Amino acid sequence: MLSVEGLESGYGRARVLFGVSLEVPAGRLVCVMGRNGVGKTTLLDTVMGVLPATGGRVTFEGRDVTRLRPDQRVRLGMGYVPQGHDTFPQLSVMDNLLVTLEASAHRDRAALEEALEVFPRLKPLLKRPAGFLSGGQQQQLAMARALVTRPKLLILDEPTEGIQPSIILEIEEAVERLHATGLAILLVEQYLDLALRLADGFVILDAGRVVRSGPARELQDEEVHRLLSV
Amino acid sequence: MEGVLNQLPIGLSIGAVLLLIALGLTFTFGQMGVVNMAHGEFIMAGAYTAYLLQGVGFLIALPAAFVVAGLMGLVLERTLIRRFYGRPLDTLLLTWGVSLMLQQLARDLFGAPNVQVASPAWLRGGVGILPYNRLFIMALAAASVLAIWAYMNRTGQGRRMRAVMQNRRLAATSGIDTGRVDQRTFFIGSGLAGVAGVALTLIGPVGPTLGTYYIVDAFLVVVAGGLGQLRGAVLAAAGLGLLNSYAEFWSDASLAKVVVFVAIIGFLQVRPQGLFFVRSRALT
Fold it and tell me: Which PROSITE patterns match (chain A) (predicted)?
C-alpha cells in the first residue's frame, strides 16, 4: 500500500534521513521506532510532503506521490495525525471536523458520524473551541479529523505522547479497533510495550537510517532493546 | 459646538474607510505574514476605476473596483508574494517597490495632477449634520464587515480560510489546498481596498499617491486591533478615525498625525497584543 524507497530529506543543509526504505502492506500496522532525534517525525513529514524529499521515492497504491502536495496526498487516501495533538484552536470541534470533511475527496457527511463513533468522548464537545480541550481530547480530535477523510492509510506520530493516562488507553484501543477494521497504519511510537501489543511489523531508525526491521515478534530481541534504550 | 459635532461624521467615515482597508490587510498580514505596502495602490486603483466609470453609474463602480483591485492583488500574490511566504521583512521591501511602480504607472496613465470624481446626485446633501456621502461610506463599511463575517463564519471557504490562518501546516496535512485559499484571501482582501478607493472618491480628489495617505493608518488599525481580529479592527478603525479628525480640528494636520502616533505607541505599550487577541491552550 505504502512503499518508501531510499528516502532522503532534511532541513536546509542539515540532512536527517539518509535513504530510508519501508513498506506498509494493506491492512498492516507498521511501527517506526527509535530514540529521540533519529528522524522519525522527519520521515513522516517527508512521506506526507510537508518536507520535500531530496532523494528517493514515496509510492502510495502503486502511484508515485513523491512530488505531490500534502493536500493532494490526503485526497488520495493518506491520513496524517502530526505530533503534538494540533488542532485549529479557534474553530469549534465541529468546524475542525467539517473543514477537513469539506476538503476531503468524498465529502460524505456520514463520515463525520463514523469518526465520532470511534471517539464518542468528542460528541458533547462539538460546539467548544478546540483550543479549550484538554491534551487528550485534542489528540482524539486530531485523530477524528484524519478519520473524517476516510483514509486508506493512517499515519500517526506518537499519538500517546504527553497525554493523561486515562485517555492513552482509549487512544490505544481506538488504534487497535481501526487496525482490526482493515485500515493500514504507520505508527511512530517510543514505547516498546505499546508497539508489541499493536504492531504487525516494525522498523527501527538510528541516525536517519533503518537499522532493523522485521515482524513484531522480533521486537523481543536483545539487540532491539539496545537500539531503543537511551 | 456645531463644529465639534460636524467632526463626528467626518471621523467616523474616515474610520469606515480605514476599516475597509484594514480588513484586507488583517487577512494578508495577520494570516499570511505578508506586509503588503502595495495594498495602498489597490485603493488608488479602485478610485481610478470609479473615475473611469463616471457616468456609467456609481453603484457599478463598487463591484468593478472590487474585481479590478482583487485581480491586481491576485496577480501580485501569484507572481511575487507567493515566493516570499514566511519572510515578512522581504515582502515589505518587495511590495514597497511594487507600490512605487504602480504609482508611476498611474501617473503615466492618468497624469500627475489629482482628478475629481463627481459624486452621484443622490449622495449630495444630507440630514442635519450628517452628509449623505459620509453616511453612505459608513453603511458601505458596515455592509462589508457583515459580508466578511458571514463569509468567514458561515461558508466552507471561510472555514478553510480560518483554518489556514490558525495553522497553515496542519491545514495542508488535513487536505486543504492552502495555495488556493491564499489566492482567494488575497483577492478578497485586495478587492476590499478597491472598494475603499471608491468610497474615497466621495470625500476627496484622486491622485497617484492616494494610497500612501491611508496605508500607514490602516496598518496601525490592524496592529492596534489585534492581528486577524475582526471586532478589534472595527473598534480600532473607529477610534483612529475619530482621533484623527478631532486632533485635526483642534490643531492642524501634521500635529494631528503626531497625536495619533503618540496615542498608538502609548496604547501598544499597555497592550502590545492589540485590543483583542487569542487566548488558548494550543497557542501558549
Answer: ABC_TRANSPORTER_2 (PS50893)
Low-confidence ranges of chain B (pLDDT < 50): 279-284
Q: A197 to chain B nearest CA, in Å?
A: 28
pLDDT surpassing 90 at residue A218:
no
Chain-centre distance for alpha carbon B192: 6
- Residue B282 to residue A71, Cβ atoms within 8 A: no
Q: What would the pLDDT profile of A166-184 be if each residue is shown by its tens digit? A: 888 899 999 999 999 999 9
CATH code where residue A164 lies: 3.40.50.300
Band (A165; pLDDT cuts 50, 70, 90)? confident
Q: How far apart are CA B128 and CA B274, in angstroms?
A: 36
C-alpha B278/C-alpha A78 separation (Å) is 31
Residue from B166, B173, B229 whose CB has the most chain A CBs within 10 Å, to mutate: B173
Query: Which neighbouring-strand residues pair with B236?
Result: none
- pLDDT at position A92 is 95
**B84: amino acid identity, one letter:** F
Is B108 exposed, middle or buried, given 0-12, 13-18 or 19+ CB atoms closer than 10 A?
Answer: exposed
Cβ–Cβ below 8 Å for A88 and B178: no
Q: Where are the beta strands (DSSP E) in A92-198?
A: 153-157, 184-188
In chain A, % of residues over pLDDT 70? 100
d(Cα B92, Cα B28) in Å, to the nearest integer?
Answer: 12
Work out whether strand A14-24 and strand A2-11 pair parallel, antiparallel, or are unpaired. Answer: antiparallel
CB–CB contacts below 8 A, A to B: 94
Domain boundaries along the sequence of chain B: 2-114+124-283
Helix (H) or strand (E) holding A216: none
Q: Which positions in chain B touch A103 (Cβ < 8 Å)?
A: 160, 174-177
Tell me how far apart the alpha carbons of residues B191 and B252 are, in angstroms, rounded to a whole number.
32
By the CB < 8 Å criterion, does A9 face chain B?
Answer: no
* DSSP classification of residue A111: H
Instruction: For residue A36, give its domain range.
Output: 2-228
ipTM of this complex: 0.91
For residues A8-32, give the mean pLDDT: 93
Nearest C-alpha of chain B: how many angstroms from A113? Answer: 18
Instruction: Determine the 3-state secondary structure of A80 from DSSP.
Output: strand
Query: Best mutation site among A102, A109, A155, A157 for testing chain B: the one with the most B CBs within 10 Å?
Result: A102
**Which CATH architecture fits B2-114+124-283?**
Orthogonal Bundle (1.10)
Q: Do B162 and A103 lie within an 8 Å CB cutoff? A: no
With cell 459608513, the residue in question is B138
Look up the pTM and report it: 0.87
Question: How many other C-beta atoms can be found within 10 angstroms of the C-beta atom of residue B137?
Answer: 27
Partner-chain contact A70 B172, CB within 8 Å? yes
Tell me, rounded to whole angstroms, the distance of Cα B178 from its chain centroid.
23
Residue with cell 469518526: A115
DSSP assigned state of B120: P
Q: What domain count does chain A have?
A: 1
